[in-house]
Amino acid sequence: MKNKLSAEEAELKIIELQSHLDEYEQLIEAIKGGEVDAFALKTNNESAIFSIQTVDYAYRILVENFGEGALNLSEEGLILYTNHYFPELLNLPYESVVGNSFLLFIHPDSKETFHELFKNGLTANTKGEINLLIADKTIPVYISLAPLFPAVSAVGIIITDLTEKKKQEEILQMKNAELVTKNNELQAFAYIASHDLQGPLRKIQIFISRLSEKEINNLSENGKEYLKMVQDSAKLMQELIQDLLAYSSTSTAERKFDNTDLNKIVDQVKDDLKEELNDKHASFEATELHTLNIIPFQFRQIMQNLIGNALKFINPAQPPHIIIKSEIADSSAFNNVKLSPQKKYCHISVSDNGIGFEPEFNEKIFEVFYRLHAHTEYKGTGIGLAIVKKIVENHDGVITANSVLNKGTTFDIYIPAT
Q: Which residues form the signal peptide (predicted)?
């Protein structure tokens, strides 16, 4: 006959059994929640390891750490499951979300759209944009729905927060609106420059011309000098207006791109500057250049300005020598942080052996009206390189300048090749 337990021993045994029961209940809940995939049991003073072979364990871990909302909805739209991302997006506790209708969190203006998406999502993959609403806060989201039948009577939803994307779109729209306004201002300026400014200037030039032809002998030497200064100033003003018109037209002109051989453009510019090239005994070196999808007349302006500068800012100690090269390669091949990664560029370099300038002016020379030299030293309006930069930007490209004083300058142009 077995010995009976005393009341005290029986009470201790009950406490021990209750402790094991609590432990097993916690283990079962952990298994259900996917927190463990193995557990140990001690029987007859020996430990045994039992593995939980759950196919969806890794999947649950992945979904819980997803950077987007993941939900399962019943056919009635109740939230059966959600990862932690979705409640955090709503700024609500987890228990306030699970078990509720998904419609509770949808903006009234988006409910009809969601009904249609959900209806389609019961039988096929579908996606669209809706707005969530919580505590008077609207959250734009992109949702992808997929039926989970027949495995589970539910619909799976992936939710992507579009708040930041919408903000960027608004900023882009504002920038585009500003750009339209600036273009309209440029067009208005071009009209004023071509009509209101050039009209009076032409009259001034006519009267100066008449004075030079008919009254020049009646003027003193000082008077003749003053007249020449006025004549030079009027000519400079006309050049300035024409350059400003050219600068404004680079933004407002219709952009017609065409596959163009750069060799032909360079040959045209050389022909235009033939007399000056001969007068200054300039030598010209151009390797076989590439064909690019560009705006031909604008690229001709680029070459006209850069080659023209090489002939203007010459080193008195030697005749000008101009070198033009081009190569096509991935952006990673060029040491320029402004280039887009994973993109091919055509690199065009225009080099000369002129007077050059200090490296501190590498960026400033592209500013409108910026001049390194006085009008008395070198003619010009200080707009030419600003026009060049604007044209390069019209082609989604980048231009830089590298120069050494008394050694020469190289302009590097990068234009997308694809």
A: none
**What secondary structure does DSSP assign to 59-122, as a single string?**
HHHHHHT-SSEEEEE-TT-BEEEE-SHHHHHHT--GGGTTTSBGGGGB-GGGHHHHHHHHHHHT
- Nearest alpha-carbon partner for 39 in 56, 54, 55: 54
In a domain, 1, yes or no: no
Q: How many domains does one find in the chain? A: 4
Q: What tokens does 412 get?
A: 């590097």
Q: Are residues 112 and 216 in the same domain?
A: no
The 10s digit of each residue's pLDDT in 186-225 is 777 767 766 677 778 888 888 888 888 888 888 888 988 8
Mean pLDDT of the chain: 82
Separation of alpha carbons 182 and 204, rounded Å: 31
Same domain, 62 and 41: no
Answer whether residue 158 shows pLDDT above 90: yes
Residue with token string 């033939």:
274
CA angle in degrees (0–180, nearest 5) for 32-37-38: 115
Residues 207 and 83 in one domain: no
Token look-up 């402790």 returns 19
Work out the average pLDDT over 81-103.
91
pLDDT band at 78 (very low <50, low <70, confident <90, very high): very high
Q: Among 208, 233, 405, 411, which residue's Cα sits nearest to residue 324? A: 411
Query: How many beta carbons lie within 10 A of that of residue 386, not counting itself?
Result: 22
**CA 408/CA 315 separation, integer angstroms:** 8
**Residue where the block lists tokens 């030293």:** 377
CA distance 221 to 393: 49
143, 70 contact by CB (below 8 A) = no
Domain residue limits at 130: 57-161
What's phi and psi for 219, nearest 5 deg? -95, 145
Quick check: is 119 in a domain? Answer: yes
| 74 contacts: CB under 8 Å, gap ≥ 6 | 80, 153, 154
Which of 161, 176, 197 represents a domain boundary (last residue)?
161
pLDDT at 194: 66
This prediction's pTM: 0.52
Quick one: 127 exposed, middle or buried, by C-beta within 10 A (0-12, 13-18, 19+)?
Answer: middle
pLDDT of residue 235: 82
Q: Both tokens of residue 391?
A: 């044209």
